């Protein structure tokens, strides 16, 4: 497929706000795409050069893109900056400035050619790398029409802004095969086991829905993590699940650890460490391996051929051997000074579930069996890598005592797991249930929300440029974000300043297509779905204004919401769901 044709499809998608129409356009695009290029088409349509766990970062800022555009169109850099101030989108700047220069285009590159050129540009490193990136990207613009250049500009900046997700791609694949979304669940099952949407698209394009049968667990390709439901008391947990395995709920980084021996003979000897592969993936499937060297080494020391297991990594103070708050754990998420920070704030990893071992898939095995096998493999041989404490309970009173014990130890609460359940990759259900400490007010738990936009500040907050921000929760059925609250209190001056900086970096010209927002809640500045925040509120109430859960009955809203912290470890789709909000609301009423 020619990139110019691909760009025409992107233009059609950008100019529709209908979810169904967007899916149909994507389906038509995927139908026209060849087997060889469909993975690249999918990645580029999502604004990436690969799946989240193997994504290449461009390292190009707006400032560097000014230089690229100035070089490509032969204008002074200051003129490019002034145009950007007017339109707020460098893609539009390129589109306008290339209007005359590229009128008689002699080259029409394919999607594959553009993909490879972008990847080569992203991978340029070392001395003089910035200058080479600028030169090569400007040269690429000279080989494309201006509409293609518009979208190529947005991809390195992470601002493609088309308003759909992996889930929409799954719907489009179903539509491509059947003309409706009926195959979505079957496609999602394959995607849950192999979280590479490009690979899934390629298998479906090649073999239809039967291609999903080829999807197997593979070391090095993350499995979409299972998620827990909520219940209000130990009594309701035992009533619903029966006898459970319970473990402390540790507030840290959830990691999925992959290990495989790969012996490579070099001459007549084996290269040290070349024979093993260790990958650590975050809950949003990013590769975190280089950030946590002590955990990599602990996993590498396991006496297995291959393994995939999950654990919770938490920072601790070596002097007191006490766990540190999440705010300090999150400081380990860095690309620079890694070794120094690892020495200052080491991590412990507590394994809690086994997904794969020595070539065997454990996803369909019962939790009791998975847990027992994990304990035998990991044991507690290492200070860095351990198995989380676990015990079985059938008595609500005993489970409640275990819960209170964890609260006294300064932890969040407990996780209770159905003993006879398989691992539900990518799903949220009652196989796992979390019970967290009760905060003041009626609401037992914090809510993870997506920041949707903000209103400019007045009075004192005029200095911050932001006075309140709008947050929403995720509707899994519709793959959209629904409003649940405005947040205007509970932030320090420094937090207001940080919120403004974070929000402006994600700002877009208009309301994203995946936002369901009533006209009464129009924002001065919209931001794309990317920022997740943890919110504490006194209670959940009914609201005729907000769209979360609004159908015949009014929607849900948060009463007296306050910002607790930013959750940079979570993707927007991992925010609290509308279904969870409904559960929490019903729990309030039952007390």
Which features would summarize this protein structure in a list?
single chain; about 600 residues; alpha+beta; DNA ligase i, domain 1; D-amino Acid Aminotransferase, Chain A, domain 1; OB fold (Dihydrolipoamide Acetyltransferase, E2P); 3 domains; eight-stranded mixed β-sheet; seven-stranded mixed β-sheet; 20 helices; about 35% helix; about 20% strand; globular
Outline the structure in words.
With about 600 residues, the protein is of the alpha+beta class. The chain folds into 3 domains: about 5-155, DNA ligase, ATP-dependent, N-terminal domain (DNA ligase i, domain 1, Orthogonal Bundle); about 225-435, DNA ligase/mRNA capping enzyme (D-amino Acid Aminotransferase, Chain A, domain 1), CATH 3.30.470.30; about 445-590, OB fold (Dihydrolipoamide Acetyltransferase, E2P). It contains 20 helices and 24 strands. The strands form 5 sheets. Strands 15, 16, 17, 18, 19, 20, 21 and 24 form an 8-stranded mixed β-sheet that branches. The radius of gyration is 25 Å and the shape is globular.
